[in-house]
Amino acid sequence: MRTALAIARKELAVAFTTPWAYAVFTAMAALSSFFFVSLLEQFQQVQSLAREHGWSKLPPDSIIYRNLTDGVVVQLWGVVMILTLFVAPFLSMRLFAEEKRQKTFALLLTTPVRPVDIVLGKYLGGLGLIFITLGLTLVFPVLLSLVGSGPSGSALEWPTVLLGYSGVLLWGATCMAVGLFISALTESQMLAAFLTFAVLLPWMLLRGVAQSTAEPLRSFLSYLAFDAQLQGMLQGVLEVQALVFFASVILFSLLLTHRAVEAQRYA
Amino acid sequence: MPITEKPIIEVRNLTRRYRDRVAIEDLSFTVGEGELLGFLGPNGAGKSTTMKILTGFLPPSEGSAKVAGFDVSTHPMEVKRRIGYLPETPPLYPEMTVHGYLAFVAALKQVPGRAVKAEVARVAGLTGVDDVMGRVLQNLSKGYQQRVGIAQALIGSPPVLILDEPTEGLDPAQRAELRALIRSLAGKHTVLLSTHILPEVTVTCEKVLILHQGRVVAHDAIDQLAKSHGQAEHASLEEVFIKLTAA
Questions:
Q1: What ipTM is given for this predicted complex?
Q2: Is residue B89 domain-resident?
Q3: Which of A157, A199, B217, B226 could serve as a FRET partner for A88 with CA atoms 20 to 30 Å apart?
């Protein structure tokens, strides 16, 4: 376990000495604040329309704009989830691919470190990176509750916000696990990033495909879709099914990574 | 020739194939404890492959290799605990500082937390990298990078050192220093040293093993080599080497 932690620490230390991690953090902060502002504007528009005409005159789906939590933060988490899909491959790509290209993988494989510690260390390092990236977006609900607290208390329902946020974190952890496995298969970071993206995106879009199929296949596909599994959590509903689903995807990816590291010796 | 010392490395009928290309074939030899063995051979003779198998980086196709009595295939962890390995390309993380890197390797080798600092200082002193501890590895000269690579292998003072072309990229003065360092390690450590710079072997090693096309063509003490391979007694290592590997 100590070696796993040493590997994770090294992973973070190296990431913070390269401009790469900062570029990813900046992209995440810039894009999510852009969406945050436009979500706020939309919220304000609907609110002023409602003040003029009354909520009953507005289309039924604008009901979510009745409060900040559903109208802004839950929407924002949906956006952050999509951004994570784009950002995570760039964080996970170097985990193993870089070690192989630099020939430093020989060091990990010839020192008395068990493959399971290598995998765990790499994954913990990756988790650290994605959690820092996602941590940046926590500033938006904090801003809202600082500015928006009125006499009736906070403008946000924090339990809903935080549950949605843990859904986002769970999703980030899943992306990193898939990315870790793909990174263990290749020497090229570009290829690792591209393949990770090529696996995650269709998996995310599976729900759309499911809509056009007939019944038994349809529920099967929507069960597998990341998007469908996450919806409940993002809206603040804790579903054991989703937890089990993502935990299995992570565990399975880590097992495959372990196999890939062991197979390195037999390449 | 009788083996006087207890063998610490035992290689039996070792074969390694890469698909249909044979890198080493039916290799058998032993290395006694505290020996300093020069591992010679032309490029592509299988030196690096043998070293990779001994360090547990590559599995053998056939045969077995034992280090300190532990089989590489069945007890890889026990073997790795006893080996310090410098691969052909020193495994350095370009973004790390020398100190950060050596401390990381110490953690990988499970040097107890409190002893890390002293151990890093010890190997840095031995290899003469103590004046660049704060510098980033990618900015160091090739010579310093190579020395950091050796320092890394020395961490935890493993009984067996496997050095794949350690003098590569060093200038003559650094080479001389490194030779002195390696000679000083003999006795405490068993050293397997691969190189194709022959004069270097004559001054560092007592014994040599010459590989050619994946087979052992000679394994003897340097002063015995010429005699046992039917050459004039004063024949240099180079002459013997060229004769044995001409095929």
A1: 0.87
A2: no
A3: A157
